Amino acid sequence: MAFQNPDQSKIKDILQTKKRIAVVGLSDKPERTSYQVSSYMKDNGYEIIPVNPTIEETMGLKAYPSLKDVEGPIDIVNVFRRSEELPAIAEEAKELQPDVFWAQLGIFNEEAANMLENTKTTVIMDRCIKVEHASM
Q: What is the arithmetic mean of pLDDT over 105-113?
């Protein structure tokens, strides 16, 4: 069966109840989409956890080299990486069992969705978390 995102009511529920977001690929450059989206989410009360092995910190927050280095539970894994990188990120996320695996607008990989299919993790792909939040 082909991948399908959850309906709008489920996405709204996620954004109202899940507040700890690990952002894979979060840049330290303010002109980058990952920075702008994460800054918006932070300004709207979400805890942002940068995950990027190439930086020490961003937005005044310590960056972690990988998801497995993040301490504590993760509500949402929000991914700003190329589509072909999603399976490896999904594999790492699968071990951590986040509530949501969210691939940003333009990012989609059926294999990654299939990897998380029989887990408790809800998969959302090719959707912008900022746009979804702003439209609630």
A: 97
